[in-house]
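Handout, section B. The chain below has 209 residues.
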Amino acid sequence: MSTTNTILLTTTVAATAGYLATSAYAVHLFGRLHIDALTGLGNREALGILARRTTSRRGGAVGLLLLDVDNFKAVNDTHGHEVGDVVLKVIAARLDSLRLPGERAVRLHGDEFVLWLGAVPSDERGRMVAALRVAAVRAALTRPIVVDGLRLHLAVSIGAQTLLRRGVQLSALLAGADAAMYADKHGRRLTSLPTTGRLRDHRPGRESA
């Protein structure tokens, strides 16, 4: 191989290595910015991207579900944050497993999650779609969660919101769902905690998903 070809090859390899390193860092950075570290779900930033992409299109409506765990603080206070983190991971996994095409599970913060429904019909059918998704999510998330033999029965409050998507703001969707969620919370059963078992010295092990 000539000296010129050797130089060209070396330069190409170096450039390719630099590109791959830059690309890998970009992927890493995107993950840090858009993925929740505890659960692996998308975060609020990822939800914002979804909303901007969907609401920029014409016609139809968009919807989302907003949910939280009733009295989740009692789980942390009674059994410790390690158990609480396991509970959040199980909830996240269950919510993610329920996704239909076009939907996305997101953790906003704490014990608050969103199921982004994406495009839905703009009439009563859209609200029916959201109501059916509420029922499915509630059924999945209220199944008992077992952490190293500790059985927890959780209640969740869920609010749904659908709006015409052209120009709609994510904040409007979240505000409507938040109001519906707190209306749902009234009369909901609070989280049920076991009356026996270890408390703050409890260490999470196997959990049921």
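Note. The mean pLDDT is 82. Compare this with the example in section A.
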